[in-house]
Amino acid sequence: MITDSELHLQKYEPPQRSAELEVRVQRLRREAENREYKQMTQNVHRTKKIVDGNVGKELKAMNLQIIAVVNFVLTVGGAFAFGYKAAEASMEEPDMAIQMLVGILLGTVVFFADLYFLGG
């Protein structure tokens, strides 16, 4: 009896959606897309903020950085010059290799000291 029998299923027809449901689904879809867009673009900064009045703050920060770089170069150069001339003054006969070595050594010490204080 089972081998001779057949199974007849009705074709599935999905129920019709109401117009109110379609409008609500479209509105929710737009809201979700807007939320996703805002989340994607939340870390994008506009250049308008700089133009609005932060130019003075930006120039002041840049000026401070330029001063720090100039100070850095002058202290390292001054330390080199001091080491070079101190080695020259301490020897009876000038030896350029020793003077350079002392100057570079002192300049390197000051260089790393400045890096330490500028970084921290």
TrEMBL record:
GO cellular component terms, semicolon-separated: endoplasmic reticulum membrane
TM region(s), chain numbering: 66-84, 96-118
Membrane topology according to the record: Multi-pass membrane protein
Location(s), subcellular: Endoplasmic reticulum membrane
Biological-process GO terms, alphabetical: vacuolar proton-transporting V-type ATPase complex assembly
UniProt KW keywords: Endoplasmic reticulum, Membrane, Transmembrane, Transmembrane helix
Any Pfam family hit: Vma12
Name this polypeptide is given: Transmembrane protein 199
